[in-house]
Amino acid sequence: xxxxxxxxxxxxxxxxxxxxxxxxxxxxxxxxxxxxxxxxxxxxxxxxxxxxxxxxxxxxxxxxxxxxxxxxxxxxxxxxxxxxxxxxxxxxxxxxxxxxxxxxxxxxxxxxxxxxxxxxxxxxxxxxxxxxxxxxxxxxxxxxxxxxxxxxxxxxxxxxxxxxxxxxxxxxxxxxxxxxxxxxxxxxxxxxxxxxxxxxxxxxx
Length: 205
Known about the structure:
Blueprint: E1 2-8, H1 15-26, E2 32-37, H2 52-62, E3 69-71, H3 74-78, H4 85-95, E4 100-106, H5 107-112, H6 119-125, E5 127-131, H7 140-144, H8 149-156, H9 169-177, H10 188-196
Parallel strand pairs: 1-2, 1-4, 2-3, 4-5
């Protein structure tokens, strides 16, 4: 079975995340999407991030019974700070023997992939599935600045032909802080969880 590793902060998880998982499966690129909330994201190290337990709980509410989707808490079990994708995927291979892991990332992350921990090993060891992000689509020339031409060509071919999901967790947090409606962006149960736990409230009175 092909299992697409979908890592992220998911702060909060929104309809774009679940819609993307549905599209990747429906397009035939993978058999299962495994949501892996980041325990301690390297790219946000030192920045305020909602506690892991809340992000995991919201994610469980967001993907509730969605076909072909699972959630893994492996990053919390590993407890690494910061946590790196290469190490997490290596550990997941032990949990899914016989299955084929894939790495799912956005086109914005594809442009930054060269800076990731063990980047070349990631590219050589696992299949990459890149989903398009609006206004952040690298070209072969962009990738050639950091990769050999053959690898750059291989990476650009990983971009899947899927619709854009223009929903941002950052914007959702800002909207909630301003008491703006986010009903069309996140699932109802996720919204209730945010309200009941007082998440994303503005510090200004």
